[in-house]
Structure formats: structure tokens, C-alpha cells
Automatic annotation (TrEMBL):
This is C1q domain-containing protein. The keyword Ribosomal protein does not apply. It is found in: Secreted. Residues 17-44 form a coiled coil. Residues 70-207 form the C1q domain. Keywords: Coiled coil, Secreted, Signal.
Length: 207
């Protein structure tokens, strides 16, 4: 009877020990699974950080390029002649020595020549006026050739003026100027204007 009792206790102890071993094994398996999950999450986190850094870098690069375009130095000028002009030789450059605006310093009032500082589209505008009984024609010269012209005739009327404009694609270093084609009488001061806008056009296109 005592032997059976001891045997029963041994069996119970073995069962409890086996159950504890099983529980420990299950716990160990869970711990190992958690460790593998943590390792995978760590790898994923590192990949996500690397991707985020790359994306931020690309976004920053695109933003910098956009800012570079929008914050480009303005190119614009406005000039006129503040005295009467007469006896201008055919093909001669008409000097617009009175410069009121010269953003980018691309226009030379002494020579009357605009030098393109950077490639792009440029809008040129000009206006002329002549005395009663006379006529005139002036040309916009681009690349050394006539690109557009403006004519004014006051033969049968009082003072007459004519305006024109032209949108031109220029390359860096190209020269543009206003030249006389034929003129009789005097070209009036103040009214003869030569203006150029580059920055305004760029803002309209990119905004």
C-alpha cells in the first residue's frame, strides 16, 4: 500500500515536471518567435527610414529646382530718348540713353544694345512718334537681322505714333537693338520707348 502511494506520487511528479517542461518549451518558442518578429520590424524600420530619407532628398531637390526657377534674377528694362532725333543713318542703332529701369543690367543705354543674359523668351515693346508731314520706320534687330518693324506716317495729319511688340526666343549672349530703316523729319523724344520684359513672362508661365 505504501509502495503504491509512493509510485503514485512519483507519477504525479513526473507528470507535473513534464507539463512544466512543455510550458517552458512553449514559452521559449514564443520568445524566439517574438525575437524574430522584432528583428523583422527592425529591418523594416531601417528600410523605411532609408526610403524616407531618399524621398525627402528627392523632394528637396525638386523644391530647390523649382525655387531656382522662380527666384531667378529678373531681367527687365525700360529706356527712352530725351531729345529730338534727326538725320539718323539707315541701319544705325538708335541709342536709348535715358534708362529708367534696368533689372539684370542687360541693356546698355550708351550703345542702345540689349545683351541676353540667359536663354529664354523675351517680350520687346516699342513706340515711335514723328512730326506732321514726315514718316519713319524702325526695325527690331535680332541675331543681326530684321525681326519686326514699326512704321509711322504723318503726311496728312498731325503727330503720329506707331507701336509694336515681339516675343522672341533668345540664347545667352544674343544682341537685340532698335535700328533706323528710313526716317524723314524728327523722331520725338519721350515717345520713343524701348522696353523688354523677361521676368514677368516667366512668372506667368511658371505660376
Amino acid at each position: 500500500m505504501i509502495f503504491r502511494g509512493l509510485l503514485l506520487l512519483c507519477l504525479i511528479g513526473i507528470c507535473l515536471a513534464s507539463e512544466e517542461v512543455i510550458q517552458n518549451q512553449q514559452l521559449l518558442a514564443r520568445i524566439e518567435a517574438l525575437e524574430r518578429t522584432i528583428e523583422k520590424l527592425s529591418i523594416s524600420d531601417n528600410c523605411a527610414k532609408a526610403l524616407s530619407t531618399k524621398c525627402k532628398g528627392n523632394d528637396s531637390e525638386r523644391l530647390n529646382k523649382r525655387l531656382e526657377v522662380n527666384s531667378a534674377t529678373p531681367v527687365a528694362f525700360s529706356a527712352y530718348i530725351n531729345h529730338f532725333v534727326s538725320n539718323v543713318a539707315i541701319g544705325a542703332v538708335i541709342p536709348f540713353e535715358k534708362v529708367t529701369t534696368n533689372e539684370g543690367n542687360a541693356f546698355n543705354g550708351g550703345t542702345g544694345i540689349f545683351t541676353c543674359p540667359k536663354s529664354g523668351l523675351y517680350l520687346f515693346m516699342w513706340n515711335i512718334m514723328v512730326d506732321h508731314g514726315y514718316s519713319t520706320q524702325i526695325n527690331l534687330i535680332v541675331y543681326g537681322a530684321i525681326h519686326r518693324w514699326s512704321h509711322a506716317t504723318a503726311i496728312n495729319s498731325g503727330y503720329t505714333n506707331a507701336a509694336n511688340q515681339d516675343l522672341v526666343r533668345l540664347n545667352e549672349g544674343d544682341n537685340v537693338w532698335i535700328a533706323n530703316e528710313r526716317t524723314s523729319g524728327e523722331i520725338h523724344p519721350i515717345i520713343l520707348l524701348f522696353q523688354e520684359f523677361y521676368y514677368l513672362y516667366k512668372k506667368i508661365i511658371h505660376n
